[in-house]
Amino acid sequence: MKRFHVHMHVDDLLQNIAFYSRLFGAGPTRVESDYGRWMLEDPRVNFAISTCGHAGAGLDHLGFQVDDAAERDALKARAEAADMAMLEEGVTTCCYARSEKHWITDPQGVAWAHFHSLGNIPLFNESAAPAAPAAAACCSPAIATPAAASSCCGPRATAHTAKTCS
Predict the structure, then answer these.
(1) Which residues sit opposite 63 in a β-bridge?
(2) How many domains is the chain partitioned into structurally?
(3) H or E element that contains 75
(4) Among the listed residues 149, 154, 129, the one whose alpha carbon sits nearest the alpha carbon of residue 139
(5) For a Cys staple, 48 with which of 7, 34, 36, 106, CB 3.0–4.6 Å?
(6) Distance, CA of 163 to CA of 98 (rounded, Å)
(7) 161 assigned to some structural domain
(8) Per the domain annotation, does 64 fall within a domain?
(9) Mean pLDDT per 10-residue segment, the chain (166 residues)
């Protein structure tokens, strides 16, 4: 069995530990002065954050794809219960698929999508006109946060400086 792994640079470890603990519905399994890690079983993921490394090193957005609407609704309810800012897209098209999705943004400005795929489509984004291929590169409006700006499939954080840990 595989486990999804993500390691992200963060500026404020405690703020992000609080956010991800609410998002995952569980506290981290390991915490150090510059590091936090969750070993989750549902979904199976090894998710780590640290104040080491390079900020925004190619990360656009992350997310959870679920098998049915009830799972998506449970993720949405968890985000709402934790009072997270959310952008509800409902049924939308992006990345050659029709999905029902919503977005949340963590304190670092990283976008997370919770989505249930409803089927494949022949275009990247049905709302993009054929004469405007640049419009097809984006599929979600920016979430209203100070650090967010539009990018493909979700908001993107602004660049931060890297910190090297010893």
Answers:
(1) 113
(2) 1
(3) helix 69-81
(4) 154
(5) 7
(6) 39
(7) no
(8) yes
(9) 78 93 94 90 89 64 85 88 84 82 86 84 64 38 41 39 46
Q: Would you say 146 and 138 are in contact if contact means Cβ atoms under 8 Å apart?
A: no
CATH number at residue 102: 3.10.180.10
Q: What is the DSSP string of 90-158?
A: EEEEETTEEEEEEEEE-TT--EEEEEEEEEE-SSS-TTS-TT-GGGGG--SPPPS-TT-EEETTEEEPP
Paired strand residues for 101: 90, 115
Q: How far apart are CA 132 and CA 144, in angstroms?
A: 25
**In which residue are the tokens 């990283």 written?**
110
Structure tokens at 64: 């959870």
Q: Is 142:115 a contact under the CB 8 Å cutoff? A: no
Instruction: Supply the DSSP string of 7-64, one letter for each residue.
Output: EEE-S-HHHHHHHHHHHHTS--SEEETTEEEEEEETTEEEEEEESSB-TTSS--EEEE
User: To 10 degrees, what angle do helices 69-81 and 13-24 make?
Assistant: 140
